[in-house]
UniProtKB/TrEMBL annotation, chain A:
It comes from Streptomonospora nanhaiensis. Its EC number is 2.8.3.12. SUPFAM superfamilies: NagB/RpiA/CoA transferase-like. Belongs to the 3-oxoacid CoA-transferase subunit B family. It comes from the Bacteria. One of its GO terms (molecular function) is glutaconate CoA-transferase activity. The keyword Transcription does not apply. Gene3D superfamilies: Glutaconate Coenzyme A-transferase (3.40.1080.10). Pfam families: CoA_trans (PF01144). Keywords: Transferase. The keyword Transferase applies. This is Glutaconate CoA-transferase subunit B.
TrEMBL record, chain B:
The keyword Transferase applies. Pfam families: CoA_trans. This is Glutaconate CoA-transferase subunit A. The keyword Chloroplast does not apply. SMART domains: CoA_trans. Belongs to the 3-oxoacid CoA-transferase subunit B family. InterPro entries: CoA_trans_fam_I (IPR004165), NagB/RpiA_transferase-like (IPR037171). Keywords: Transferase.
Amino acid sequence: MTTGYTSDEIMTVAAARALTSETACFVGIGLPSTAANLAVRTHAPGLWMIYESGTLGTRPDTLPLSIGDGVLAETADTVVSVPEVFNYWLQPGRIDVGFLGAAQIDRYANINTTVIGDYADPAVRLPGAGGAPEIAASCREVVVIVRQSRRTFVEKIDFVTSVGHGSGPGDRERLGLRGAGPTRVITDLGVLQPDPATRELTLVQVHPGVTAEDARAATGWDLAVAPDLATTPEPTSEELAVLRSLTGRGGV
Amino acid sequence: MIVPLDEGVRELVHDGDTVALEGFTHLIPVAAGHEIIRQGRRDLTLVRMTPDVVYDQLIGAGCAARLVFSWGGNPGVGSLHRFRDAIQNGWPRPLEIEEHSHAGMANRYVAGASGVPFAVLRGYAGTDLVEQTPTIKTVECPFTGERLAAVPALNPDVTVIHAQRADRAGNVQLWGITGIQKEAVLAARRSLVTVEEVVDRLDPVPGEVVLPSRVVTAVAVVPGGARPSYAHGYYARDNGAYQAWDAVSRDRDAFARWLTDEIGAQAPLPGKAG
């Protein structure tokens, strides 16, 4: 097992690497926000970050605790109203990447952030949809970042808050969803991508020290593994230093 | 037009009303929410895109019968435990919910402000929200035949917001993250705006929203009225207070003590509330 960084750290680094400088990215709070801010400070200085509070092209100098922190407005190219961010920016497909988290995810990358258990009598009531259903429907592609466990990676999610690839090929098109849907799911164990033919999430990459069996053991369905399984390159010292300066864990 | 907060709440917020206290993380009308708790309003339909800590408090105090919303959480911290307790356990009273996405709620307010009965959006397709929420339907575009989601206009009895400034005539100025406040006021039958200060003259500010006094029913001067959220240009968000709320809200007794100590309101008793 490689040491020197945590599994959360390599997950965040891997997620940051998925973003490129020319991209307009709709950023959710938490891990997506950390990863996007890491990307801007390393290889993607031109990443255009949007938070659903209406801050377009924001460049916060510290990590915001919420999507509406004042630092987001102060450092944005412009601040627009909530109807404008959803109707004028998200809905017509002006955003390249939607960056989402999940409470539950299934083999077709459908996401639940609404309830665990029955909707009318839930075991756990979660915050709900927020911007996610339309982010998942309208961005050109979606990147999901979520810790991998059998509690989260389930055979059947309890509630479809946001559609990934539905129940397989052709579903997004039938539903009239315009973007490509989730193209990558990045976890603390590795990276999953939908199989081009079946749309089923397939393990394509593991982080250093993680095996395909580890990932299968943390997945509630029979996880497909790519024959040419890759290994995530180690985080660089620069990536770790910037990440730790963001999260308050100090320098390397 | 310019009234004390307690008078504004007494005259404009009634038992059984549909009430929107809006603010998208910024400029949340917290002091007005606390006054609603203090005055013991009951059976409210609370509306808000992002019910957060002050809605947790209103729900925990037993003010709400229904919640219309799109994301209910403690922003940046986690879940709302009074909201969870009401939905999972019916404490202090059962809470009926009507659940949307942000895009759905934003468009409902836009329709309400526009005086049309519904809004269309490209959304919701394939999600389980469609089955659970009767106010999500599908319509066919009369021009292209395309199927789109339709959501009804939201027209609260009263919308309450917080803003930076008003002038003596009651024209209101707010800026920074302006959220959905303008639409929520224009959609409402009555509105109450708490402000940081009243000034003789409103100096224009980049990116501001101005609500002319003719669409504002009453203004109350409440400096710090958005704390622990923030008022851009006046004070910063108190992130520590949001984190501290988690512990208070997890425990019914701790919450009851908070109600008494901080609000001066009696805690609701299970089985007697509502």
